Amino acid sequence: MKHKLLIVDNNHVQACGDCVDFHKRLNWPYEVIRPFDGDNFPDPNTFSHVILTGGNGAKTRKSVQNYERELGFIRARHELGLPLLGVCLGMQLIAEALGGDDSVRFRSSSEIGWIRVKQTSPSRLLNNLPAEFSCFANHTSEVVKVPSGFIV
């Protein structure tokens, strides 16, 4: 399969414009769907790569139909062994889809601001990034149980 990217925009307020700008560096064909706008998930085998963006987890869970469809899409992609990247809420959805309902919990306090990320082992995902870098975090939930086979 040639490279073709699907971006699942989980932002419930407005389209995540900056979230999709990075695709220009890849120069791959891509498509963006917004589950909150009622967009349907494609066949999980249609795209070579999928990115699940961040969003408001509480709002996502209230939209039960879209939430369950996204978890099903994640499970289907995983069973096919195809690349899937989750950012923020996207990772929480992956953890819940593959690790169960008790994999994610609401935090007792929000995590908002710049945090340090440190790569502790080789990763194709972080291959061209520095061993340590900063990124902005805005989280009210956290992954507390990593799905089987995942590496922190």
Q: How widely separated are the two ends? A: 29 Å
Helix content: 25-40%
pLDDT averaged over residues = 83
Count of individual beta strands: 6
Radius of gyration: 15 Å
Overall shape: it is globular
The strand line-up of the biggest sheet is 2-1-3-4
Query: Topology as H/E string?
Result: EHHEEHHEHEE
Helix and strand composition category: alpha/beta
Q: How large a portion of the residues is in β-strands, by DSSP E?
A: 25-35%
* Sheet of most strands: 4 strands, parallel
Q: Which stretches are low in confidence, meaning pLDDT under 50 for 5 or more residues running?
A: none
Helix count, per DSSP?
5
Written account of the structure:
The chain has 152 residues and is of the alpha/beta class. It is 28% helix and 28% strand. It is built from five helices and six strands, in the order βααββααβαββ. The protein has helices spanning 17-21, 23-26, 57-62, 64-80, 89-99, and strands spanning 5-8, 30-33, 49-52, 84-86, 104-118, 132-143. The strands form two sheets. The protein has a four-stranded parallel beta sheet with strand order 2-1-3-4. Strands 5-6 form a two-stranded antiparallel ribbon. It is globular and about 35 Å long.
Entry keywords:
four-stranded parallel sheet; 28% strand; alpha/beta; 152 residues; 5 helices; two-stranded antiparallel ribbon
Fold topology:
Layout: E1 5-8, H1 17-21, H2 23-26, E2 30-33, E3 49-52, H3 57-62, H4 64-80, E4 84-86, H5 89-99, E5 104-118, E6 132-143
Parallel strand pairs: 1-2, 1-3, 3-4
Antiparallel strand pairs: 5-6
Précis, in short:
The chain starts with a strand and ends in a 9-residue tail after the last strand. It has helices spanning 17-21, 23-26, 57-62, 64-80, 89-99; strands at residues 5-8, 30-33, 49-52, 84-86, 104-118, 132-143.
